Description:
Number of strands: 9
Structural class: alpha+beta
Number of helices: 3
Order of helices and strands: EEHHEEEEHEEE
Strand content: 35-45%
Largest sheet: 9 strands, antiparallel
Distance between the termini: 20 Å
Radius of gyration: 15 Å
Helix content: 10-25%
Amino acid sequence: MDYEIRKEKEIVLAGVSRMISTVDGQNYREIPKFWDEVNEQRPLGKLFADYGKSGLLQGAMVGAILEYDQANERLLYLIGLEPSGTSDLEGMTVKTIPAQTWAVFRDKGPMPASIQETWKRIYGEWFPASQYEHSGGPELEVYPEEDQPGEMPYEIWIPVKRK
Length: 163
C-alpha cells in the first residue's frame, strides 16, 4: 500500500453532513448515494464562490467521517472542503480537526469500488501489521483532482499513534 506517516497542522472543514448507518455495510451503499445527491444538488455552491488551491488540502473535495457511534452503529459523514477565510459558512457543518499525526494512503481507481476496497485493506491488513493504531478523531477521504474516466485519484487520511 502506498502510504506515508506525517504530522500536519489543524484542518478546518465545512460542508454538508448526514448520519449514516453502518449496519450490514449500509454505509457502503449510502455514502455513494450521498455523494451523488451533493453532486446533483450542489449545496456547496457558496463555498465554491471563493474556492482556491490554498490550505493544507490544496482545494480538494473531502469526505470525512466526523464521528463514529459504535453503540448505535452509525457515523456522521461530511462532504465538503477546506474553506477560505472569506467563505459564508451559514447552514454548513464546520469541524476543526486538531493538529496530529496521519497515515495518508494514496490510490486511484473506479469509484466507489476502489476506495471501499482500500478502506477494507487498511483495517484488514495495514493496521494489524503496522506499528500504529487509530488515535481517535475524524478520518478523511481527500479527492485532490477532478474525476478522470475510470481512474479517480484519492487519499485516505487516518489519525494514528504508535502502538
